TrEMBL record, chain A:
InterPro entries: Bact_solute-bd_prot1 (IPR050490), SBP (IPR006059). It comes from Actinospica durhamensis. It comes from the Bacteria. Residues 1-34 form the signal peptide. This is Extracellular solute-binding protein. Keywords: Signal. It holds the Pfam family SBP_bac_1.
From TrEMBL, chain B:
This is Carbohydrate ABC transporter permease. InterPro entries: BP-dep_ABC_trans_perm, MetI-like, MetI-like_sf. It is a multi-pass membrane protein. GO terms for biological process: transmembrane transport. Residues 82-276 form the ABC transmembrane type-1 domain. The lineage of its organism: Bacteria, Bacillati, Actinomycetota, Actinomycetes, Catenulisporales. The keyword Transmembrane helix applies. Gene3D superfamilies: MetI-like (1.10.3720.10). Its main location: membrane. Keywords: Cell membrane, Membrane, Transmembrane, Transmembrane helix, Transport. Belongs to the binding-protein-dependent transport system permease family.
From TrEMBL, chain C:
The lineage of its organism: Bacteria, Bacillati, Actinomycetota, Actinomycetes, Catenulisporales. Residues 94-310 form the ABC transmembrane type-1 domain. This is Sugar ABC transporter permease. PANTHER family: BLL4140 PROTEIN. It is a multi-pass membrane protein. One of its GO terms (biological process) is transmembrane transport. It is found in: Cell membrane. Signal peptide: none annotated. Residues 14-27 have a biased composition (Basic and acidic residues).
Length: 434, 290, 321
């Protein structure tokens, strides 16, 4: 080798080493900073990423909380990845003191392993500045809707946002008004609405083809409309329940959507949020999702848009979802985190979820955003049912349901093939459990 | 191609360029142009606005939007992640070299059963898929509180690089003539001095190559970084990119900023390659092919 | 078996020399080597044992347990392997891994050898070689992201195809097409790397062999068939082993393919690495670490078997030149 190269190499190594040393100093000095307020501290991993409105509401509450109590909150705006990180973090004893997600996710990750703290003590806490307890402002029906965890409690999530799942559409869309003067009461009626929209050149349904959850809601509702309970169906170790006529009826109904070409044409090749955006831009009529979708698209829809929600025909009760705080059992500063939960339940703080983040809160004294009036109505039912993702074991979801349903939803398999595939996958699944 | 220049002499004239080879040649250039094109397109897109990219994917930036980079570096967290990536890859490579080269040296020099057994053990490590190691290392590091820590990640990278680096350097050290050492030993130099002042300078080319290859692989490593890191101030660039992709779903997509992030990962590799490209190719080919 | 695989001729020769000398009598240099052996080898060995060998052993051990990382482990015997045996998702993952390994490998090597033949005949091959090599240094996620944009419905590629008159191009990124797209991208990006390595081997072939072949009237293909291929066979077979290992490690390309998702990609496109990741770090359920490590052990076994097979199949007498 030549002298020149070796010189540059040495220089390079020199620079590299210097850089490594310099960075080494910065890399370790930052983490231990400023977190030692007088009132203690706790860590919070949030399901929101920092530009989402919910994050802004929570950030404001955190600032106010620290100012009032002196407790510092080390917040990480982790985004939806939080559900992937929480299990390993708890296993590594690096659990945050507080985190949030849907009840179904909390149940799947920690609750089913007995790692989510029972928060009934929080329900008994006084809300600062209000003469009431947390439990008295959160209607019991929300907590009761949360499936029980392995400790037998459903109080492992204190919800601050509640959603209902249904078919959303623009009631002010002339094509929609023409196609659907009144909400259809039968599936055939719904299909003819679709046909009318299609005839006008507007695809009936926008669907994120990769997402088995939102699309699965059609299945969940159709099963319900045909008198079949998803979680009982999934729990059948023999698979015989799949032969029930109600299942076939539900699957045949869905097949009409696929084979009739009522789903927006590119749906099999796109990823969330491509079709949500298409729908918000008026390129399709209906979009099935949780009620937070209205907030997600609020920036994209024109002011003439009139948001409405309906349930699939034959269904009288909406599936609900609760999103809220959870404390891992391994949390080291649980009591500080509990104080924050109670703090955030104040009307003044929680209102932001409605006014800023455009979502519905569990507190009855906080009005729902105007565009969610129809959703609030659905939530006013005396008892609430959670959607299938909460009641079906999440492993089942991955192993049995996901791919088979998407194959069917993409038109790769017929109704009969789908039922057969689900049946055999389910039998295998239950045989391999334990 | 060469046919056109008969003056080129015997070699040029003799080589008959058949049509198949000529078409093949065009194909090669097509590949090359597409590769370069993709690179240029990524770079120009990183300087454009989102709607601009969506509407005219192949356009040039009217006025370059350097704001994309500012946004990626601060909001996307790529700035902090880039520093972490530099630190992790440089530090892990330095440790790897410091630890592996003495070992490779004695393995190359000593011809005993133990020595060849150890060499074989390192070589066998080359065949282990990373997915085998990811769970045990995650569990192990969490036991000693080194998850979500750059030092933990560096440790992992050092371990992962051990088989290849030892193997590569053994080859280089074997090529260093023993005569040089003999002279040093006869002069009374101890083993450490012999190694540092005689062997290392002669094998410097190989050591640099091993260092570079480790920098490259640590820079691009994704699986372990994804599993081991999560705090926003600890992540490396590949994790920042994955995170950015998923937050984009909820905050609205901006391809311009995304491509700026991509360029931040890409640029150092491109710079390194245009500066030391032949050494990198040579290193990989000598190390692996021979 | 594998030791022989990667044993470099250079190491072999050098060791042979020192062995012969050692037999005569131990000189001062040999004594020094003997004394420094353990002090010099120990640190690397320690790193290797702690961060490589011990984890493999632990993975093998865990694969017999049911464990979520939180609760205590419970012995499951061979049950994890039985589950894998029956799990259709794992079947897909294993099939995909094999598809990448075999189909992807064959295509990559056919193209790489074709390019080798052409580049040898080309005058300015060096620049082309470097450009083709560069994708090796790029994080595979970059290609996944770029493809997610370029191939999106009515994206740039479709626009070009529309302009060329193809009105209904395939839905490139639909679930069933993602895996073939991953394969294509992979072949595209790894071809250059293997071309470069094989070319380096080809560069060592003495020129006179080609001149002799030309005098015999061999055309480019014949020169390739009768000179390049046999002379570079050793390098090619090492490359094949290398491909085996690296193709099983493919991860982030599949993870992000198609641009964006905080969920895992559809199970149709998983390979074993994704399966391990999905079982160990699931989106919203408890980890199945035992099952995940069992899947990883299957991947390890796969690499071992294929490597041995490859060495058997590709073994030839070494040609000295």
């Amino acid at each position: 080798m030549t002298g020149r190269t070796s010189k540059t190499t040495t220089r390079f190594l020199g620079i590299a080493t210097a850089a490594a040393l310099a960075l080494g100093v910065t890399a370790c000095s930052s983490s231990a900073s400023s977190s030692d307020g007088k009132g203690g501290s706790f860590t919070y991993w949030s399901m929101w990423s920092k530009d989402e409105p919910q994050a802004k509401v929570l950030q404001a509450a955190i600032t106010a909380f620290t100012a009032k109590t002196g407790i510092t909150v080390n917040v990480t705006w982790a985004g939806r990845n939080v559900s992937k990180e929480i299990g390993p973090a708890v296993a590594a004893n690096k659990a945050p003191d507080l985190w949030d997600d849907s009840a179904g996710t909390v149940l799947g990750t920690l609750g089913s392993e007995g790692q989510a703290m029972d928060l009934s003590s929080v329900l008994a806490m006084k809300i600062p500045g209000e003469n009431v307890t947390v439990g008295s402002v959160i209607p019991t029906k929300y907590l009761a809707s949360q499936p029980k965890d392995s400790d037998g409690t459903s109080d492992y999530v204190i919800p601050y946002e509640v959603t209902a799942e249904g078919i959303f559409y623009n009631a002010a869309d002339p094509a929609m008004q023409a196609a659907m003067p009144t909400a259809p009461t039968t599936w055939a009626g719904f299909i003819s609405v679709c046909a009318a929209l299609k005839a006008k050149g507007e695809p009936c349904i926008a669907s994120e083809g990769e997402d088995s959850w939102t699309n699965g809601l059609y299945f969940d509702y159709e099963l319900l409309a045909n008198g079949v309970n998803w979680s009982a169906l999934a729990a059948d170790k023999t698979g015989a329940s799949w032969d029930a006529p109600g299942v076939a009826a539900a699957v045949n109904d869905l097949e009409q959507l696929v084979s009739g070409g009522y789903i927006v044409p590119t749906y099999t090749a796109t990823k969330y949020p491509a079709q949500e955006t298409n729908w918000a831009n008026g390129k399709a009529g209906f979009y099935m999702d949780g009620s937070y979708v209205t907030a997600e698209v609020s920036k994209e829809i024109p002011s003439t848009w009139k948001m409405a929600m309906m349930l699939p025909p034959g269904v009288s009760q909406a599936d609900v979802g609760t999103f809220g705080f959870s404390i891992p059992k391994r949390a080291k500063n649980a009591s500080a985190a509990e104080q924050f939960i109670a703090f955030f339940m104040q009307k003044s703080q929680l209102s932001g979820i409605s006014t800023v983040a455009d979502n519905i809160t569990p507190r009855a004294d906080i009005p729902a955003p105007a565009e969610l009036a129809s959703v609030q109505q659905a939530l006013n039912a005396p008892t609430l049912r959670v959607d299938f993702s909460n009641t079906v074991p999440s492993d089942y979801y991955n192993k049995v349901y996901n791919q088979n349903f998407l194959d069917f939803w993409h038109g790769k398999t017929t109704a009969a093939q789908f039922i057969a595939a689900m049946k055999s996958a389910q039998v295998t699944y239950w045989q391999t459990q334990g | 191609m060469s046919i056109a220049i008969p003056a080129r002499g015997r070699r040029g004239r003799r080589r008959r360029t058949g049509p198949a080879v000529r078409i093949g040649g065009w194909l090669v250039w097509l590949f090359v142009i597409l590769d370069i094109g993709l690179l240029l397109w990524t770079f120009t897109s990183s300087l454009r606005g989102n709607s601009d990219i969506m509407n005219h994917p192949f356009g040039l930036p009217g006025s370059p939007k350097f704001g994309n980079y500012a946004k990626a570096l601060s909001d996307g967290g790529f700035g902090r992640a880039a520093l972490n990536s530099v630190f992790t890859s440089v530090a892990s490579s330095a440790v790897v070299i410091a630890v592996a080269s003495p070992c490779a040296y004695v393995l190359a020099r000593r011809r005993t059963r133990t020595s060849s057994f150890l060499s074989m053990m390192f070589v066998l490590g080359l065949g282990v898929p990373l997915q085998v190691l990811v769970i045990p290392l995650f569990i192990g590091l969490s036991k000693v509180n080194l998850t979500d820590s750059l030092y933990g990640l560096i440790l992992v990278y050092v371990g992962l690089a051990m088989p290849f680096t030892v193997y590569l350097l053994t080859g280089f050290f074997a090529g260093v003539p023993a005569v040089l050492e003999e002279a040093a030993v006869l002069d009374g130099a101890g083993p450490v001095r012999t190694f540092l002042s005689v062997i290392v300078p002669v094998a410097r080319g190989g050591i640099t190559t091993a260092f570079l290859l480790q920098i490259i692989s640590a820079w691009n490593e994704t699986l372990f970084a994804l599993v081991l890191l999560h705090s926003q101030d600890k992540i490396t660039l590949p994790v920042a990119l994955v995170n950015f992709l998923s937050t984009e779903q909820y905050d609205g997509q901006d391809w311009g900023v995304l491509f700026a992030g991509v360029c931040i990962i890409l640029a150092p590799m491109l710079a390194l390659f245009s500066w030391l490209g032949s050494r990198i190719i040579q290193g990989m080919t000598v190390g692996i092919g021979k | 078996m594998t030791a022989q695989v990667t044993q470099s001729p250079r190491i072999g020769r050098a060791r042979g020399d020192s062995l012969r000398r050692a037999r005569r009598s131990e000189g001062p240099l040999e004594r020094q080597h003997r004394r420094t052996f353990w002090p010099f080898a120990a640190p690397a060995l320690l790193f290797y044992l702690v961060l490589f060998i011990a984890p493999i052993a632990f993975a093998a051990y865990t694969s017999f347990y049911k464990w979520d990382g939180l609760s205590p482990m419970s012995n499951r015997g061979l049950n994890n392997y039985r589950i894998l045996w029956r799990d259709p998702v794992f079947h897909t993952a294993l099939t995909n891994t094999l598809k990448i390994l075999i189909v992807g490998g064959v295509v990559t090597f056919v193209i790489a050898l074709g390019l080798t033949m052409i580049l040898r005949e080309m005058n300015r091959g060096l620049f082309a070689r470097s450009v083709l090599f560069f994708p090796t240094l790029v994080n595979a996620m970059v290609f996944g992201i770029a493809a997610g944009f370029l191939f999106s419905p009515s994206g740039p590629v479709d626009q070009v195809l529309h302009a060329l008159g193809w009105q209904t191009p395939p839905q490139w990124l639909s679930t069933e097409n993602i895996f073939p797209m991953v394969m294509g991208t992979l072949i595209w990006t790894s071809t250059g790397f293997y071309t470069a390595i094989i070319m380096a081997g080809v560069d060592q072939i003495p020129q006179y062999l080609y001149e002799a072949a030309e005098l015999d009237g061999c055309n480019a293909w014949q020169r390739f068939r009768h000179v390049t291929l046999p002379m570079a066979w050793e390098v090619i077979s090492v490359c094949a082993v290398l491909w085996t290992v690296s193709s099983v490690n493919i991860f982030q390309l599949i993870l992000v393919f198609g641009g964006s998702n905080s969920n895992l990609p559809p199970a149709d496109s998983w390979n074993t690495a994704l399966y391990v990741y999905g079982e160990a770090f699931p989106q919203s359920s408890a980890p199945e670490l035992g099952l995940a490590t069992a899947a990883a052990m299957v991947a390890l076994l796969l690499v071992a078997v294929i490597t041995i097979l490859l060495r058997r199949l590709m073994r030839r007498e070494r040609i000295e030149y």
